[in-house]
Structures are given as structure tokens and as C-alpha cells.
Amino acid sequence: MKKTRNTQKQDYVIDILTNAKHTMSVEAILKAMPIKVNKTTVYRILERFAEKGKVHFVTGEDGKAYYALCNDCNVKHEMHNHIHFQCKSCKKVTCLPYEIEVPELKDFEVQETQFLMIGICDMCIS
Amino acid sequence: MKKTRNTQKQDYVIDILTNAKHTMSVEAILKAMPIKVNKTTVYRILERFAEKGKVHFVTGEDGKAYYALCNDCNVKHEMHNHIHFQCKSCKKVTCLPYEIEVPELKDFEVQETQFLMIGICDMCIS
DNA sequence: TACACTAAAGCAACTTAGTTGCAATAATAC
DNA sequence: GTATTATTGCAACTAAGTTGCTTTAGTGTA
Ligand SMILES: [Mn+2]
Ligand SMILES: [Mn+2]
Ligand SMILES: [Zn+2]
Ligand SMILES: [Zn+2]
Description:
Two copies of one chain form a homodimer. The first copy, chain A, has 126 residues and is an alpha+beta fold.
């Protein structure tokens, strides 16, 4: 295992994601930071956390990456195969407690999954 | 229904997607064009086709949109809830003939789904 | 065939998520 | 305290996708 260091900025990212109701984009995390942090730093912090299995991300329909803390994801299963929902109106991406039964694929070695359902959330239905 | 016109460039896009083994990015479609076409044009052709249900797209883990012809998708089901696979190495996205049983969601009105599995394809395993 | 109407295409400028290379900073070990 | 190097900052860049406006070319009608 690589040597790692504990830093204030990493802690802030964890705090922010811990208190988040939804997954967050890098932009949103930056805005939530109590101190000024460079965006490259946040990208790299999240990259490291993702490698360690501390966070996971989904690519929204909009092509942006949305991050969330891994709670049970990697503990109970080696893959986090739960569903996500993205609202077309507010763009928020939510982790949902539904798990998908992933089929065995013949010609592909599956390492990760991203299950995204898209539509309108309750808050945005008018 | 809006008035539409049949154009050579739209036909080329259909031809290219019909003969494609995998889903294609806009970049790939542009390269496959037998004549020079502006990228904005291709984006708009695909947008129109997607509205009509002629094509569907998946957002890859890389944040890029990958397009494919709709074959049975919208005929048999109102949503095309089949799985896609993206290879981390060659980035190719493939439509797979596996359908996902989508759960009823309480707080969300689902309109579309994007099921993506990520890993390494047979061709790229070394 | 000529003409009108306007959908579709082209073009250039722009937006923005994410990346890269390198220099500066600071956490940790000794 | 000092050395080591993981982490952060900075600036410049890449590339997907968008926007506003002009030009081109299908299609219906006379
Ligand atoms: Mn999740
Ligand atoms: Mn598909
Ligand atoms: Zn919403
Ligand atoms: Zn591959």
C-alpha cells in the first residue's frame, strides 16, 4: 500500500459528502468548501478516495461525474450495484437503496457498474 | 407532428449506425462520414433522431455520449432498459441483449434508463 | 419549371468539465 | 530540526457539447 497523508482538505471533502443529501459534482463540492481549494486538488482527492473505495461516482446523463460516500457498497459487495436517479430538471443525482442483479457476461469482464434512471424528482414535479 | 425533411446527411448517419458493431460517439460518426459534415449538424441530427425514438444514447463512464440505433427498444418496451458495456481500455460501448427489471420508484418519475457495466472486453484482455 | 417557405446545415465563437506538467507547500519519519 | 515526498496550487490546455446567426437546400404549390 502506498503511503498516504492526512490533510485538512481531504477531511473537508469527507465532511461535505457525509452531510450531503445527494451525490455531488466537483463544482458543488468546491462551493461547499469552507476554505478556498483548487479544483485540481478536489479532483485528485476524489480520485484517491475512489481508488480506496471510500467514494464512488456515477456519470450523469449530462456527462458530469457525481460523487458519493461509499457506505455499504464495497463492504457487502465487491461492486456497488445500486441504482441512481438523476432528475432532468434539477440535475440532482441520488443513490437509491435498490440493488440490481447483474448478469454474467460472456465476452466482458465486469469491474464496475453504473445504473442510472432518469426522469423528474418529486421536488421538481409541478 | 413537426414537418421534417429527408436529407443525404441524415441518411448517412442512419447508414453508419446501421452498419456499426458498437455504439458510436459523435466524433466516430463524423470520421465515418463519406462526405465532410459539420459536427453541429451531426449533434442536431442525432438529437432529432433521439426525440423520434430512432436512436438512443448512453453516457459512458468517460462522460461522452454514445449512440446506437433503436431496434426493438421502443417497440417492445416504452423504455429501452437493456444493459450496456463500456471497455475501460478501448472505450467501446456495446448494447447487450440483457434487460433490467426496473423497480417502481416512490419519489421519482422515471422516463429513461441508462444501465452501464464497465470493465474489460474480450478483445482487450491480454 | 419557377418560386416561396422554412427545415436543415454550416460556421465561428463560446462554455465548461476535466487534464497535465511543473513549481510550491506541508505532513510525516528520523 | 531536517529530509523526504505526498499533496496542493497554478496556469495552460483539451475536448465535448452548445449557441446564435447566416446560408443552403428539401418540399409543396402554381
Ligand atoms: Mn451511489
Ligand atoms: Mn443500447
Ligand atoms: Zn429534481
Ligand atoms: Zn476493449
